[in-house]
Write a structure and sequence with these properties.
The chain is 54% helix and 0% strand. The chain has one domain: lambda repressor-like DNA-binding domains (434 Repressor (Amino-terminal Domain), Orthogonal Bundle), CATH 1.10.260. The chain is mostly helical and 89 residues long. The radius of gyration is 18 Å and the shape is elongated. It contains five helices and no strands.
Length: 89
Amino acid sequence: MKVKLQRAEDLGALVRATRKYQGMRQDDTAEGIGVSENFLAKVERGGGTVQWQKLFNVLSELGLQVEIDVPDAAMARLHEQPKKKARTP
């Protein structure tokens, strides 16, 4: 099921629900992922200051994936190669 996330709290609620559905305790989950229980609790509360890499580790370990709907024009711009200026000695 795809869910539209609009706030950090939306993602946090999904992380908590997924962990609980899998029958995992917060402390055991955090230890297994390699983050502190405090960090995992912050993620589950939707803390706005979480570190991105750790967040993606948590999501990956719980089997959650992040998808983003990017406008076609933005994707085209992403693939444009910036022209490098020739260096003059």
